[in-house]
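A further point concerns the way the authors explain their paired sequence and structure data. The central task, working out the structure tokens from the amino acid sequence alone, is never made concrete. I therefore recommend that a typical entry be quoted early in the introduction. An entry of this sort, consisting of the sequence and the corresponding backbone structure tokens, reads as follows:
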Amino acid sequence: MFDTSQNIQQKQSEIFLAKPVWQRLLIGLETIDFGYKIAETGIVLENPAILESKLKTLLFKRFYSGQFSDQKEKIIIEKIILYHEKKNQKI
């Protein structure tokens, strides 16, 4: 959905591109982090008692679904679960 006029989009691009590279990178990383937090919050609101390992696997699926073969995705999810199980044992 684009509700911003072309001239305003052009002005935004000019402002953004006038910033130093490090600042543009920081903006991009903060935007990714914000999107991650929004997705995480949505999942937790739907299931407040969700285990951390389940939350992380759902986030992985949401962001990376279709990026890996089914076999590799299964392995990654198993490793996410194993990591959080080990992490919880240390506590």
About this structure: Residues 51-91 form one domain. DSSP finds four helices and no strands in the chain. The chain has a mean pLDDT of 92.
